[in-house]
Amino acid sequence: MRKNLAVTTLILIILVTLIFLINNENNDETEGHFSEIDAINKVLEKHPQYPSTPNKNKVVKDNDMDRFWYKLELGAIQVGKETYIITLGKNNRYVVDDEVVEQYIIYKVSPEGKELITEKDNTEIMSVFR
């Protein structure tokens, strides 16, 4: 009888230990995970006027030119385990001298930081409309 109790206790201790180890292993994976939202938030620290959700647009009235509106866009693509490409776009929908007036900024973002990949800023072309 005592032998069965000792074996049962030992099995119970092993099961509890395994459950504890498995649970801690799963928590470690999700706790330190750098997500798309983390990458977006890192970029939006410098560009808070953009929408915080990918593929959602934000229509904004241009303060300098009362009659113009533009659309702000945010895109996010995962390119590695914890690496994302975040694109910020400003769409004016204007063409001047056969050139589309467009602005965009593209960052590569990881837990270590953000790196500016490229940007295009054609705001000087908008002076034609002022």
What do the pLDDT scores average to? 76
Briefly note the structural class of the backbone. alpha+beta
- Morphology call: elongated
Number of helices: 2
Count the strands? 5
Oligomeric state of shown chains = single chain
- Largest sheet strand order: 1-2-3-4-5
Gyration radius, in Å: 26 Å
What's the number of domains?
A: 2
Helix content: 25-40%
Describe the structure.
With 130 residues, the chain is an alpha+beta fold. The chain folds into two domains: 1-32; 34-129, no CATH class. The chain is 30% helix and 40% strand. The protein has helices spanning 2-31, 36-44; strands spanning 57-61, 69-80, 83-96, 99-110, 113-121. It has a five-stranded antiparallel sheet with strand order 1-2-3-4-5. Strand 2 (69-80) and strand 3 form a beta hairpin. It is elongated. The model is unreliable at 25-29 (pLDDT under 50).
Keywords:
single chain, alpha+beta, 2 domains, 5-stranded antiparallel beta sheet, 30% helix
Write the layout of secondary structure elements.
Elements: H1 2-31, H2 36-44, E1 57-61, E2 69-80, E3 83-96, E4 99-110, E5 113-121
Antiparallel strand pairs: 1-2, 2-3, 3-4, 4-5
State the gist of this model.
This protein is of the alpha+beta class and 130 residues long.
